[in-house]
Amino acid sequence: MFVLFTDTDTDITPVRAKEYGYHLISMPYTVDDKTIKPYEDFEIFNSKEFYSMLRNGVIPKTSAINSEEYKAYFIPHLKAGNDILYVHFSKAMSGTFNSLNIAINELKEEFPDRTIYTIDTMGITINSYIMVIELGKMYKNGATIEELLDYGKKQASHFATYFYADDLKFFRRSGRVSNFSGIMGNLIGIKPIIHMSSEGKMVNIGKCRGRITALNKLVDYVKTLKDDIYSYPVIIGHTDNMKLANMLKDLLVNEFGEKLNIEIVDVNPTAGSHCGPDCIGVSFHAVRR
Predict the structure, then answer these.
(1) pLDDT single digits (tens) 93-145
(2) What are the DSSP calls for 177-238, one per residue?
(3) pLDDT tens string 41-82
(4) What is the mean pLDDT of the chain?
(5) What is the CA radius of gyration of the chain?
(6) Nearest to 11 by CA among 158, 167, 133
(7) CA distance 84 to 4
(8) Of 32, 93, 31, 106, which Cα lies nearest the Cα of 64?
(9) DSSP of 227-285, one letter per residue?
């Protein structure tokens, strides 16, 4: 027997996690020296309240969890005789995975008959979410751990994500986007286009002037890179701008038709601390990233 884990940086909520059998690891953020753990310190993420706080000048900080915290999540399941499969956000984006590796190595000694497996989605937020959902479907349908590991290894590079940054101060401060020119902050209306690279990093690949132009650019990426798009969900993520999320949905439906399976999700607060309010992105199955 094995159990599934994922983390809150994949945008999955407790309701969706329960639907597919996932246990959640909470990735924290800090506001005014108070550390907050999503879905442990609150049951429902109030995205409007959170992103309004950011619009009013608050810039939360994020931090890695330590090895003891990882062990506290895993030990009850290992004691119950279960192996663990943890589907997580990109290792290339956080030092938290150093703590994870320490925890796994220590738990190997404590539970030599049990194994903790991992799948790196090589993404974050909606890029991870789409993989978590697809793997969760397989788990519900009785897939073996070997089948899930094989799927994760082969498919990670085929789930693409493209989004634009609206308020540049958040990404400039976070330092998590490669090729992000500081001069963009002085250009009124410029929206950098960012994607998740094949190395699992956020990379700035272009810029548009204005939100509508940026939305159309996102649709162009879907048109160019789509692969078997009707067999997989298309995920739209937003940081408290449902109006723009619905505009992107309408653009996609106009291009691909009503058969498109589109889901709109709120970007989680930990990742949202780095991208700020009014960001919009799309994740889909692609020939490549």
Answers:
(1) 999 999 999 999 999 999 999 999 999 999 999 999 999 999 999 999 999 99
(2) EET--GGGGGSTTEEEEEEE-TTS-EEEEEEEESHHHHHHHHHHHHHHHBSSGGGS-EEEEE
(3) 999 999 999 999 999 999 999 999 999 999 999 999 999 999
(4) 94
(5) 19
(6) 133
(7) 6
(8) 93
(9) SSGGGS-EEEEESS-HHHHHHHHHHHHHHH-TT--EEEEEPPHHHHHHH-TT-EEEEEE
C-alpha distances in Å from residue 91, one per residue of 79, 96, 106, 118, 128: 27, 8, 19, 11, 12
Which residues, 6 or more positions from 70, have their beta carbon under 8 angstroms from its beta carbon? 25, 99, 100, 103, 104
Residue type, 71: K
Give which of 30, 31, 40 is closest to 8, Cα–Cα. Answer: 40
Does the predicted TM-score (pTM) go above 0.90? yes
Beta-carbon neighbour count of residue 89 at 10 Å?
31
Residue at token pair 């272009």: 206
Specify the amino acid at residue 135. Answer: L
Structure confidence by residue, pLDDT tens digits, 208-229:
999 999 999 999 999 999 999 9
- 205 phi and psi, to 5 degrees? -120, 0
**Per-residue confidence (pLDDT) for residue 181, from 0 to 100:** 58
